[in-house]
Give the backbone structure.
Amino acid sequence: MTGRVAVVSGAGRGIGRAIALALAAQGRRVAVCDVLEAEAADTVAQVAAAGGEARPYVVDVTDSDAVQRGYLAVVDELGPVEVLVNCAGWDKFLPFVDTEEEFWDRVIEINYKGVLRWVHAVLPAMVEARWGRVVNIASDAGRVGSSLESVYSGAKGGVIAFTKTVAREAARAGVTANVVCPGPTDTTLLRDAASSRGEEAEKFIGALTRAIPMRRVAQPEEIASAVAYFCSEEAGFVTGQTLSVSGGLTMA
């Protein structure tokens, strides 16, 4: 593999951290981007301990100026961005009728518009260079819907449709765009969202697990391996695709 520069948003923990480690293992120079400064620094330390190269960048994906500043800093310090993985995400388990517009806005700003901001920043240079890999992390919730995740499901469905359109527009320039849809995954986000259910938290996680044919939730590294493939040199003829990594939770 080459030392191409890879940006990973939401790389401070969970799936994003696992992706940063997987891409560094491919030989990528990884820009670890997250709003959580200490967590981003810890990811960089783990990459370095594994023999890879990474730098931390504090970037709030809800702020267009912050994304642009982060992008320019990465280019200045690491070089042209050739791989982009949008993994920053947030949600809370709530029935739709119990949500308010402030909640809708936060979910959409992070999970959907954060993707738009990063792609808008990096895509022109990828098209000009005639090589690029864009991988957006959506969710099976965006494919089939998910109880208690109405707005999140809608935002992730938007990510899927947006990515397919980018794939069509950028294909002739040698830029691919694909989606990885994790099923329930053992992350801080899942645990925090479940804990918001109070005494029902364990029951909720149990119901999720029973719904998965493999009878367990995913580990972040299992999601990262799918992302690493889409980012690889070998995946140059694969674009506009949506891959579920969900233990069989969805099969269509």
